[in-house]
Request: fold
Amino acid sequence: MSDILLASDPVFLEHRPHVGHPERESRLEVLADLPRLAALPRIPVRFAEIDELSRIHRLDYIDRVRLVAESGGGYLCPETSISPGSWSAALAAAGASIDLCHALLDGRARAGVALVRPPGHHATVDHAMGFCVFNNIALAADLAARQGRKVAVLDWDVHHGNGTQAAFWDRDDVLFLSVHQAPLYPWSGAVGDVGVRRGFGYTRNVPLGPGCRDEDYLHVMDRIFAPRLAEFGPDIVMVSAGYDAHKEDPLAGMALDSEAYRQMTLRLMAAAAGAPVLVVLEGGYDLAALRECVDLTVAALEKPEPPAAPAAEASSRVRQQVDRILETWRELGCP
Ligand SMILES: [Zn+2]
Reply:
């Protein structure tokens, strides 16, 4: 068994949104020479089958993506443009996420890292949103759940993972946890949105105002997410790993240092109690920050150690917000 498996492939550079688009090929190119990544064993990357995609996406939507790509590219929605190579890249992003999930479920590694594009967590059953084409992490989570495994998805991208939330809204086999800036695109992810029917209480959203620092996010991990993860007892944990809550990110207003991502990873590994961890790249648009954050995430996966206490106390604003969120969930009667 290798410790950590990597999915990385030049096919992901074939997705070329219009010039000047923040979700650009250089996001992966800056990761290429990270020594820590170069040392990891890689899985062969393959295209997802249409059958596999159709477990989360409607066939007419899948077909539309193919047709737009084949006709030379264009816009799937105002913020998501694709090129002819995007079809291959999107199929490969889904296939790589699914195959890393298989590898972890089969015990071939204890962690997997999917450095893929286009990203996925905004993509819904029948439309592209927010630079996302197919919902890579939802496809992986659905696969694990179909095999009878309990799946926890932690989405720390600065934007709410609306597509993933929608995919598991009424299901109790996938716990969806999201911390995100609010108000901000895609304008969803309210505290009271906790799922319905069997899924009631299996979606938990933590919207935070801008300006949050490491200690604020770690407070959310320690007070909310780590206890929820431990209580749920997942068989596999997946991370929608966007790095756009970094202080240098041009698209949002959070203020994390790169180290926050190492500390969050250590916390989720401790809470996961030995369950394998699949990290799937989502956003993150400052190239230097993205490079450092991915490196520190993998460093934490490589060397699990007790998480460090936050260097400072969380702001009173965030401590009060966390108290209010926990109170809201109690009032709603979340299990
Ligand atoms: Zn994002």
